[in-house]
């Protein structure tokens, strides 16, 4: 169609063009943030005070010229402060808590790391757009196992035991006394190991369909001296033993599983009569008009580049990251759960549901 005179608001065109430039810059900045994380630049700047590009190069043993350009990009993005006198760069402590300190509850290094592995799959995803098939997890960069470990670690370290488990008092008491726990889609085992450390009388198991993640989980358990109480195995989560667990957990697993209803049905059957299934998903709505915000943009983008395609690779349901509370309750009912309660937990990023038989 040709342009209709007077139909286009030029100010809106200008405003939208500026937004596109901002998004293009953000996408390339994501790659630079990946480098800052992977090369240890953020960590080198944390707590070091103002420093020149040369001083940073000496500290990191990296190229001064590349660092100078990288630093200027970080200043433009307001990640790093700049002092014109002396041409010095400074990573504020508040930013370091997010970018450099892996023990901080606000650490987001895993999200910085995920950008390049998933964006690099765009050509493969483009093929999937055409053939309506998918890209399997095995086709992604092997560092994805570490990516998910680092994304989830701050939540598991700082929220799982202090806040999430106590939101279910009967579960907390059972685990203290000695219960049986299963983490479905355990990845490298961070959640399972966290629970094992916090509840030494309990037995904990983790399952995942990806052999590389299970190998990493078993290595982590051995390194922490927990192999006697924590076991990890390769399974898809649909053939679980009946009436066996006091607590079953899944953390951002259901939405990209091949058979989410089958998984949840198996979880219900595997619970003990008084057991609970803790289902954690992204804190977004099932309705797109309610997700027009930064979190919604991030969830839909990652879902397109990863979540739905790893499900479609095996002919799966491809629910996507924004399954939301509505779909969660729908699946809980279809799976035969007697109750589905959203837990009262103050968290902007995740929603927690307790499902019981």
UniProtKB/TrEMBL annotation:
InterPro entries: Methyltranfer_dom, SAM-binding_MTase, SAM-dependent_MTases_sf, WH-like_DNA-bd_sf, WH_DNA-bd_sf, WHD_Rv2258c. One of its GO terms (biological process) is methylation. Gene3D superfamilies: Vaccinia Virus protein VP39, Winged helix-like DNA-binding domain superfamily/Winged helix DNA-binding domain. The keyword DNA-binding does not apply. Residues 177-333 form the Methyltransferase domain. Keywords: Methyltransferase, Transferase. One of its GO terms (molecular function) is methyltransferase activity. Residues 35-100 form the S-adenosylmethionine-dependent methyltransferase Rv2258c-like winged HTH domain. It holds the Pfam family WHD_Rv2258c. This is SAM-dependent methyltransferase. It comes from Melittangium boletus DSM 14713.
